[in-house]
Amino acid sequence: MSWLLDESHLADLSRGATLLGTGGGGDPYIGRLLVAEAIKEHGPITVLDPDEVDDDLFVIPTAMMGAPTVMVEKIPRGTEPVLALRTLEAHLGRTAQATMPIECGGLNSMIPLLVAARAGLPIIDADGMGRAFPELQMETFSVYGVHASPMVVAGDRHETVIVDTGDDDVRMERLSRACAIQFGGAALIAEYAMTGADVKRVAIPRTLSLGIGAGRAIREAREEHRDPFAALAEFFAGTIYQNVRPLFRGKVSDVERRTVGGFTRGGCTVAGFDGGELELRFQNEHLLALRDGEPVCVVPDLICVLDDTSAEPITTESLRYGQRVVVLGISTPPIMRTPEALAVFGPAAFGLEQPFVPVEELVSERFSEPVAV
Amino acid sequence: MSWLLDESHLADLSRGATLLGTGGGGDPYIGRLLVAEAIKEHGPITVLDPDEVDDDLFVIPTAMMGAPTVMVEKIPRGTEPVLALRTLEAHLGRTAQATMPIECGGLNSMIPLLVAARAGLPIIDADGMGRAFPELQMETFSVYGVHASPMVVAGDRHETVIVDTGDDDVRMERLSRACAIQFGGAALIAEYAMTGADVKRVAIPRTLSLGIGAGRAIREAREEHRDPFAALAEFFAGTIYQNVRPLFRGKVSDVERRTVGGFTRGGCTVAGFDGGELELRFQNEHLLALRDGEPVCVVPDLICVLDDTSAEPITTESLRYGQRVVVLGISTPPIMRTPEALAVFGPAAFGLEQPFVPVEELVSERFSEPVAV
C-alpha cells in the first residue's frame, strides 16, 4: 500500500539509515535538512510499495556519490540531483514516473526523497544495496541484469556528464568516480533507469520503511527506558534482515582513516571492557570485523558501530578515540547472499581473503542471552 | 576552393604535422596508417576552404586526447572517433555536415581525416590551435566564444561520456581528462560543434594545407639536395606563420620526461656544437626555449626540434640523448597573439613567468644570414 512520508519520519529515517549505512553512506544530517525544506515547500512524498507498482512504470533512481568525509563538508545546492534526473530523462527521451534509492544507508536514503519532493514524483520503497556500499556497481540491480548506463553525474556548478559503458558497471563506476573527484570529491547522480517489472525482480524491497523502523525502534526504546539493542534485535527479527548479533563492546582505541581515490579507507580498533579487541576494516563502509583475530562479521552482512548507551549509530568518519561503543552484526537478506551477489559485493570484491560466512553462523550469541553486550 | 586529399598527401602531412606539433600532438604514424586504410576503403577526402563554407554548415570537430607517450603505444581501434561524432550528433539531434581538426599538430592532423573518410564527410582546412597544445580549452574556438560543451569522450571499448560544462572550457578539460585517464590515458573526442559562420570567425585558416606544405618543403629540399631549413623558412614566409628563426644547433645532452596527470611533462638540454646551451621545457608540447638562460622563443610561438641533417621533426617523447638537432622558432599568426588568446595559451597559462615576446623580436637572425645554423 502506498503511504505519505512527511517531516515527522525524517529523524527516525536519519538514525536508521545511518545504522544501515554500516559506517558509510555519508551522514544523513545535511540531506535531512534539505528534504525537510523540500517537504515544507512541496508537501509530503508518496511512497510506493515495490510489489504494487505497475510493471511498465518508468523509474530513475537518484543518489549522491563520493567520499563520506567529503559529503559531510561539501553541502549540495539541492538542485543537482533533480538536474541529474532531468538530464537522464532528456537523454533517454522518457519522463520518470518515480524515483528510488540506490542504497538505503546514510545520505542516500535522503537524496531520492529530495528529488521526489522537488520533482513531484513518488518514491519506491526499495533499493539496490540493502545497506551502503562504496562503489556503484555493487547493486543487486547490476547483479540481476539491470545496468547503470546511461548514467548522469552532476556537479554543483550544474555541469553534467552522461556516462555510457553498456553492460560494464565496473567501468561505469571508474568513469563516474573520476568525474566525482573532479567535482570536488562528491557528485549527484541518476542511474539504473528501469521499469516497475525490473524493480520487483532486482530491488531489495521495503528498505526505506526498514530504515524508518530501525530508527523508531531505537528512539522508542530510549523514550521507554528499554534496552535499545534488544529493541533493534526484536525489530529486525520481523524483517528480511532477521538476525542481529552482538559482536563486541568496548572503547575505540585506534582509528586510521584516509581519503584516497575518492574513498574513505582505513580501520579501527576497539578495546574490550572485559579484555580482547575487535578490529574493523572499512572502505567508506565497514567490511570486516575480526574479534581477537577471528572473523565475526563479513561484508555484505552489516557491521554497525553504535554508542554504547544511546545506541546512536556512528559513521566511519565520526569514529574517535575513546568512544564507548557496541558493535552489532546484522544478517542481509537472501537476495544479497547468492553467489552472483557475493561475486559483486562479497569479501573478494574488496580484496579480502576471508570467505563470506553468514553472521548468524559465525556468532551464536543472541540478545536473549545477555552475554556479550 | 575545395580539393581532394588522397594517400599521396599523407607522408608530407605527417612530417609537417609533427613539425607543427612543436614536440607534442602525438606521433602521427599510427594515425597515418589508419587514414591510408580508410582512404583505400572509402576513397579520397574532400577538403573545404574555410572562407568558402556556407554560414549554416554544421561542423563537429574530432580529435584524440591524452599523453603523447600513451598515444604512440595505445593504438586506437579506428572506430572510436566516428562513435564520438555519432554520439554527439544524437545528443544534439543534428547531423554533422563536416568535421574539422581542433589542432593541426601531430596525430590530431590525422584523426579528423579518419572520421571524414569513414563517415563520408568533408573536412575543413582549419583548426583551433594553429599548432598542438596540451589542454582542450587552449583553442581559438574557446577564446573567441565557441565553447566545447557538450563534448563526447569515447574509449576503445566503445564507452562514451558526454560532458556538458556550459561555457567553462577549463572545467570541460578537467572532466574529460579524468575520463581519458580512466580510458587508459588516451581517448577519442568530438567537441566544439559550430557553424560555418563560426569557423570563419574563430578558426585558424588553412592549417591542414600548411602541414602538407611544410612537410613537402622538407621532402623536396632533401630530394633536390637543398638546405631543408632554408626551404622551410621560405615556405613559411608565404603563410600567416611568416617568420622562421634559427634558435640553436647542438646535441641533446639531457632529457627529463614523466607521464603525470595525463600529460607528458619535462625538459631537455641541447649542448651547442660551438658552446652554450639551449634549455627546452615542455608539457606534451615545447613551451619555452632558453638560450644560455635567455628566452628565445615562448609559447604560443612554435619551438621545433629537427634532425640536424634530414630536418625530420622530433617529438618530445622521441627525444634521446645524443641526437644532433636544429631548433627552430616559428611565429604564430595574429589571431593567436591577442591578449585574449595569450590569456588562454600564453606562457602564464602554463605557469611560466616569462612574458610573451614574439620570436621575431627575440631573435634577429634569419636564414638568409647563415649565422646560427
Automatic annotation (TrEMBL), chains A, B:
Full protein name: DUF917 domain-containing protein
InterPro entries the UniProt entry points to: S-Me-THD-like_C, S-Me-THD_C_sf, S-Me-THD_N, S-Me-THD_N_sf
Protein's organism: Quadrisphaera granulorum
Residue ranges annotated for the S-Me-THD N-terminal domain, each copy included: 9-164
Source lineage: Bacteria, Bacillati, Actinomycetota, Actinomycetes, Kineosporiales
SUPFAM superfamilies, per database record: CV3147-like
All residue ranges annotated as the S-Me-THD-like C-terminal domain in the record: 168-359
